[in-house]
Amino acid sequence: KFDQENLKKELGKKLIVVGGGFTALDVARTAVRLGVKEVIIVYRRSQKEMPAGEKEVKDALEEGVKILELHNPVEFIGENGKLKKVKLIKKHRKCRFLLCFKFKLYI
Questions:
Q1: Which of 11, 25, 50, 66 minimizes the number of CB atoms within 10 Å of its CB?
Q2: Whole-number Cα distances in Å, 49 to 13, 21, 57, 93
Q3: DSSP symbols for 47-92
Q4: Is the distance from CB of 88 to CB of 73 less than 8 angstroms?
Q5: How far apart are CA 94 and CA 72, in angstroms?
Q6: Rounded CA gap, 69 and 46, in Å?
């Protein structure tokens, strides 16, 4: 049996979704509807390059999902079996090489 209340507790207050396709958008929007306070999609390319359709991206933004474009996760830090921080690198818009990345703060 599906326990929606238990799922809400497990999701926590902040959720990071990695990817820019239809499934990533579905996960992010569902999390918002389940009551997650802050939902951030992390995508390695620009928002315009996301494989999900423009309508889905627009709808997600209207629902409160944030999109962090041109970022990649490089480290996941946990504590007591729970994810606490994600370290990201940011890519410069016109660069295709790893040397063009710089580290960003943990989120």
A1: 66
A2: 28, 10, 11, 12
A3: GGG-SS-HHHHHHHHHHT-EEE-SEEEEEEEEETTEEEEEEEEEE-
A4: yes
A5: 16
A6: 5
The pLDDT profile of the chain, 107 residues, written as one tens digit per residue, is 667 777 777 777 899 999 999 999 999 999 999 899 999 999 999 999 999 999 999 999 999 999 999 998 988 888 998 888 888 888 776 665 555 555 555 55
| Strand (E) or helix (H) holding 103 | strand 101-106
Please answer whether residues 49 and 41 qualify as being in contact, where contact means their C-beta atoms are separated by less than 8 angstroms: no
Tokens of 22: 């239809």
In this structure, are residues 59 and 32 in contact, taking their beta carbons and an 8 Å threshold? Answer: no
Which DSSP helix (H) or strand (E) runs through 5?
Answer: helix 4-11
